[in-house]
User: What shape does this take?
Amino acid sequence: MNKNLRGLAAAVGLLGAVAFAGTANAGPIGVSNANVTIWHYTNAGGNIADPCEQALATNPCAVAGNQVYSGLYSGLINFTNPAANTIVDFLNTAGGTFVGSVAGLTQQLSSGGFSVSTLMNFKFSVGAESFGSIFHDDGISIYDATNTSLLIDSSFPTVVTSTAFHLLPGTYSLWYSEVNGLPAQLTMNVERTISQVPEPASLALLAIGLIGLGVSRRKQ
Assistant: This one.
């Protein structure tokens, strides 16, 4: 391979690094002004197969009469086992900010035997292609922004488990059900992102490669 071709190959390689710069981000995802809706209801005689106990947009108990909160949330999706079994204590574990008070949500978060349940929906956006895992004790699912396409379905486990996700830039709808007593957990960890935005260091390397290619051509 002659010098020009070697220089061109190096420049193309650097350009590829710019276009697909990867970043490691181990930790809970942060959201800004995510739309949050919460429903709370009793379901005597319920069980894991009951549609009202599942974290799906088709949950028949997600109706106006059961809605206890609708507002905005900014902070981490990192809700962990609360000290008290109430909705407000669970929401406060992440340390984020809710627009519209959640202080009055003193209802029992859930109870064993599926008789008292809470269903939550977070509509949030991601700016870069993201890979990670969601740790949850009961069900979760992820839909597109309009809740018409089910992308990830782990809608009714009853033990703490981990569900992998891979999301492209866009807006998504995360559903979480808390239906069978404590523990309660919803932690969405991002492990890696891929950004299409050029980083300053990568741009500098690209410029050096192109300058080197130009010098090589002038010498010839």
In short: The longest strand covers residues 30-42. Confidence is low (pLDDT under 50) at residues 7-20. Residues 71 and 158 are 28 Å apart (CA to CA).
